[in-house]
Amino acid sequence: MLKLNKQAIFSDETRNFVSNPFAKKGETITIALRVGKDDIKDVLLMINGIGIPMQKSCSKGLFDYYKIQIMLQNNIEYYFIISADNRQYFYNKAGVTDVINTEFNFRVIPDFDVPLWAQNTVMYQIFIDRFYNGDPTNDVTDGEYTYLGYPARKMDWDEPVQPVDICNFYGGDLSGIAKKMDYLADLGIEAIYLNPIFTSPSSHKYDISDYDNVDLHFGDNALLADLIALAHSKGIKVILDGVFNHCGHMHRWLDEKPEYFIWNGDKYEAWWGHENHPKLNFEGSPELYEEILRVAADWVSPPYNADGWRLDVAADLGQAPEFNLKFWQDFRNRVKAANPQAFILAEHYGNPSYWLQGDAWDSVMNYDGFMEPISWFFTGMQKHSEKFLPDLLNNAAAFEGAMRHYATKLPHAALSSAMNQLSNHDHSRFLTRTNMRIGRLHTHGNHTANDGTVAAIMLSATTALFTLPGCPTIYYGDEAGLAGWTDPDNRRTFPWGNEDETMLDFHKEIIRIHKENTALRGGSLDYLHGEYGVIAYARWDDKQSIIIAINNSYEHKSLALPAWRAEIAPNSTLTRILLTTENHFIADKKTFLLDEGTLFITLPPLSSTILTTK
Asked: 3: pLDDT confidence band, cut at 50, 70 and 90?
């Protein structure tokens, strides 16, 4: 009787097990399943409800590999039925089960053409007014205008953010980004995401009054073209923020094109009741529909050549889901025709699979599948610092469950290009969440955002950021140790000259590790171990295997990790390339000898480590 080794069974949608995850219609792909050597009787590939026998292709080390070729005509959905020890087992992204849950099935979507440059790339988000003032001559002047009842105010760079921040300007601009481009290149950044740059009366600029011109306090259109060209010369892409669901109430369209808006008597519909965000009426105005598609194509075309769009509240655009999808399909077609390598990234909460079928968005800001599980595990804090849930703090099972569940909502191309972040302009700084304190700027004040923070937790979470699938994205200043409550305190000025040097050096090192190790840029992911405060997982491809282990508890943890599951030979050695601890990080190399495929390792409190076969 064959006894099934469930831990040996593995497949996913990476190149390790799907010969071409980015195949076109009409192409033939090979799908593979790994099982323990001589473990099973046979295996069926269940594809769109039809069972096809798979053949053993080869054996290597502890494993047998079963493979089958499939010609792609349309989207396929599949799982495996494994016969062993006189019974049948099911296998998909949920693991080995007795009953199949098709929600976790593998999927391959032909013609899902996400730019290769956007796969697992290192991104950096810049809130422009707070990054660097490169040209004081274009600063907002005191009393220049009044907006929402507040006068425009020019601030000193080091002045704390105020609870009402919409008209407080610090002077950051495109020239400032250009002057810090060498800093970004030295850090290792591969793509920049800019918060809105177009004409707007606010400091955040999500209330645009002119889609065709860069805000004069940031520079001008020619300067943007020069900035993007400079970034490209250093191998850095630039993504713009597309705010197309609504505009600002100072847009001339309210007078000149009232049909662009939804009216209830003499009042326009405002997005979520924000009167400075009049919602655009795409269903009611074909002219508006075409105008926004033109704008979208123009900025990714010469002379600007932006590399894509981040789409603000993308699922809210329009009135009906069917119309929303059609608009984004047309948006994709227009943008990709103008620039085939443009990346389309949507802000979205919840299940985005409706828009991720290869004909609308490329990927999403990965709130549900990264930011939230990471925040809950490492800090027990909700991402706005408005709730603390002790049951989720250090809960490895909840972390792995959430990561597995939300990964099923993203096709492989979208998962590997999803924007993973610890912090951004809408949520509290991750470093502040490490104090595990509920609060906001107006309740506790600026200084308390730094009180009780734990840098070691930030280091460990950043290790996870750069070793899990997707695009690790740094919110400006996180690498310098910037803290802050949620909006607006998360939009503090970059602390030039007062950076946390340890944090900055660590970011440079972890970015280098991410870029130089191929398994972290497209390899398979398997969760090896979880207990209170501890998560351990493996990444591997055909070149190397990597083990990542994190201890978020205040105790030493001795672990026995099944490294053999990452296809590491039973008695080989692993080299530690990074260790973070409570006080510092170490990037020296230390070797560990496996014992029959098991890695025995002791982790200090509040630590993370990376080990590799390469």
From this structure: confident
